[in-house]
Write a structure and sequence with these properties.
By secondary structure, this protein is mainly alpha-helical. It is built from 10 helices and no strands. Helix 3 packs antiparallel against helix 8. This is Urease accessory protein UreF.
């Protein structure tokens, strides 16, 4: 893959236009806002930095990196192990459901596309075996794990895949806050700029980490996620 193709593939996979449903999830941000816990854009940025350091990096990027390396080695069991451990580390049921639905949608999308860089990541071979395992209920198909496998099959390196995942997660959280009408476009873009160094830092730190290093610590986000399951007023599925 040329550098231009790699960049375009990374942009495509991190774009909210990718029809995998990630825009339907706020991962607790909606509940924070509904409970009046976030008043300013800076507070929103601090919250998302906490997500990056407590969940996205040490859990999602670790799972993605392990899945990417396992895919490169043709190791289906390694991919399944990443799926299992990430599911165990994700406590709120809505967070797990959002993740697995997005993973399933990405696999469905690949099954329909047979041109360009995605053609190398079609649902045959190792990716087909993983898809079969998801459909048979032998594994959950969490989005970071699916994305790690897809990026590897499409020719993206592990760190590039981690950046795609972390950037997509951050823009998804910021976008959720914006769609709830609390913050304008400029404020959201300013926070995204502030978070770029943190995205780079956590990808550098965790993309090569061993699966046994996976952890997740965001207790307040977990509590908000669980409260969201019973909330009367909800725009997002998590």
């Amino acid at each position: 893959m040329t550098s231009s193709e790699a960049l375009l593939t990374a942009l495509r996979l991190s774009d909210s236009m990718l029809p995998v449903g990630t825009y339907t999830a706020s991962y607790g941000v909606e509940q924070y806002l509904n409970e009046g816990e976030i008043d300013t854009a800076d507070e929103l940025g601090e919250l998302i930095e906490g997500y990056l350091r407590g969940v996205i990096g040490p859990a999602e990027v670790v799972a993605l990196g392990h899945a990417h390396r396992s895919a490169a080695a043709g190791d289906l069991d390694g991919i399944l192990a990443a799926d299992e451990r990430l599911g165990a580390a994700t406590l709120p049921a809505e967070f797990r459901d959002s993740s697995t639905k997005a993973g399933g949608k990405l696999l469905e999308l690949l099954d329909e596309i047979d041109d360009g860089p995605f053609a190398a990541a079609d649902t045959t071979g190792l990716l087909g075996e993983y898809t079969d395992a998801c459909e048979a209920g032998r594994t959950a198909g969490h989005y970071p794990v699916v994305l790690g496998v897809v990026c590897q099959q499409a020719g993206l390196g592990c760190r590039e895949a981690a950046l795609v995942s972390a950037y997509g997660s951050v823009t998804g959280l910021l976008g959720a806050a914006q769609r709830l009408g609390r913050f304008g476009h400029t404020a959201i873009q300013a926070q995204l700029s502030t978070l770029f160094p943190v995205i780079e830092e956590i990808c550098e730190r965790y993309s090569d980490a061993e699966l046994t290093a996976m952890c997740s610590f965001a207790p307040l986000a977990d509590v908000r996620g669980m409260a969201h399951e019973r909330a009367d007023r909800r725009l997002f599925m998590s």
